[in-house]
Specification:
By secondary structure, this protein is an alpha/beta fold. The chain contains 17 helices and 8 strands. Helix 3 packs across helix 11. The chain is globular and about 60 Å long.
Length: 438
């Protein structure tokens, strides 16, 4: 990667070594120890980052914060990630048991830290190959030697497999998630975009194969970032996503992650249409049952219950909610933070008289709106899908959008019944489908 496209910390090293690690620690009663390894993305670099401070809003920070809000985080560190790191750098650090200088002596080292982790995320590979593309003079030139590039890809695959094998030798029970890469230069001249995308597709195939062969989980980001590449990477000379881009990456990791084995509920048979969705959400502790044995699949969902569940389903910014705007919501309520946050993000609203109606049943029409807005889905122009949802109906655009993505279906008589209350199993099914689409 050429100067201007790769961030080096040489001039700032004396500052950074006294401020690492970046970490979150909560009481020992919690469950998950999370370690993020890799390059500048794991480190948390954004286009507005300056070398006199430690990033605190990268995808790893967002994931850690989300797990902390779920009450599941015991510890988090990304102190062994570093801007400019290649797959070889990560591998060498593990083999040499590197200790990062900080304001406190690192007497544990990377091997002990990894050996105690429940979750390890790894983003490495882009720095290995971007040099091979020889991007010069801003966006004007890019040369590409396929043979040299292939040799570098082979090295990436070997290094990743060796790194993951090293982690598993230290910690056979660790869940390892390996990131695929997005196009870091969406502003590149049009004729070069295709070549760059093809090269990155090859890189992602190698990363995917390495993850599969080591029984790790591959996390794709190319499509999610690429859909709005210039929005998430606004600086043509910087390969790092902004805060919104890191949030997208965090959600791609969250989509793949599990915090526990799915809960086996006595009232959810394996033949149930919602059983796979309930398993998926319970493995993330998004959806919880009653007395750990019963899910109550046919029970209607209240508006506050729904927002709490949706809040657990999405990794949002770390900005804390400030004050409710609703007359029937106060800080003593269990859903206060979720409702306030989703209102602040303009993903949910109340009534014209200033109420949220937290204990009212959530209707299918209301759910359609909050799913589309919450998951930031592109609205569609489809109309007339359901006989009881005229174009003039307030929720019609949201219902039609979900129908176009095949997230929702109607009943056999081609009705949607937008005023019907949503049950817990229906909510589980639709949230899981939306998360997978996102």
């Amino acid at each position: 990667m050429k100067p201007g496209l790769r961030i080096f910390l040489i001039t700032a090293l004396t500052i950074l070594i006294f401020t690492l690690p970046a970490s979150i620690t909560t009481p020992a009663s919690e469950d998950i120890d999370y370690v993020a390894l890799g390059d500048s993305l794991a480190f948390g670099v954004t286009p507005d980052w300056t070398k006199d401070r430690i990033p605190d809003s990268g995808y790893a920070h967002l994931l850690a914060n989300h797990m902390d809000e779920l009450g599941e985080l015991s510890s988090f560190t990304n102190q062994y990630s570093y801007p400019g790191y290649t797959t070889e750098d990560v591998m060498i650090d593990l083999r040499q048991d590197v200790r990062m200088p900080s304001d406190e002596v690192d007497d544990r080292g990377i091997r002990t830290t990894v050996s105690e982790a429940d979750i390890v995320t790894l983003s490495a590979g882009a720095n290995d190959v971007l040099d091979e593309l020889s991007i010069k003079n801003g966006m004007d030139q890019m040369t590409y030697d396929p043979q040299s590039f292939e040799r570098e890809l082979d090295a990436v695959g070997r290094n990743l497999k060796a790194t993951i094998a090293e982690i598993l030798s230290l910690n056979p029970d660790a869940d390892i998630y390996v990131m695929g890469y997005y196009n870091p230069l969406p502003h590149l001249h049009t004729e070069k975009i295709k070549t760059l995308n093809e090269a990155l597709d090859e890189l992602n195939l190698v990363i995917h194969r390495a993850a599969k062969e080591t029984k790790s989980t591959f996390v794709p980001t190319s499509e999610a970032i690429g859909n709005r590449g210039k929005t998430y990477l606004p600086d043509p000379t910087d390969i790092h996503p902004n805060n919104a881009g890191h949030q997208v990456i965090a959600n791609k990791f969250w989509e793949k992650m599990s915090l526990q084995q799915p809960t086996d509920y006595e009232d959810v048979p394996g033949s149930s249409f919602a059983s796979p969705s309930i398993d998926y959400l319970s493995s993330k502790k998004i959806f919880k049952g009653y007395d750990r044995e019963y899910f109550s699949p046919d029970q209607e969902v209240t508006r506050r219950e729904a927002i709490m569940i949706l809040d657990r389903s999405l990794v949002l910014s770390q900005e804390q909610p400030t004050g409710s705007t609703y007359t029937d919501i106060d800080e003593s309520m269990d859903a206060y933070d979720s409702i306030t946050k989703w209102t602040m993000e303009a993903m949910v609203d109340g009534t014209t008289d200033g109420r949220f109606r937290p204990d009212d049943a959530l209707t299918r029409g209301e759910l359609a709106k909050v799913l589309v807005k919450g998951f930031d889905m592109k609205m569609t122009e489809t109309t007339g899908t359901f006989t009881d949802v005229p174009d003039s109906y307030w929720a019609s655009p949201y219902i039609e959008t979900l129908a176009s993505y095949e997230i929702i279906t109607g009943y056999e008589d081609n009705r949607f019944q937008p005023q019907k209350a949503v049950t817990r199993q229906e909510l589980a099914l639709l949230v899981e489908r939306t998360m997978q689409l996102n």
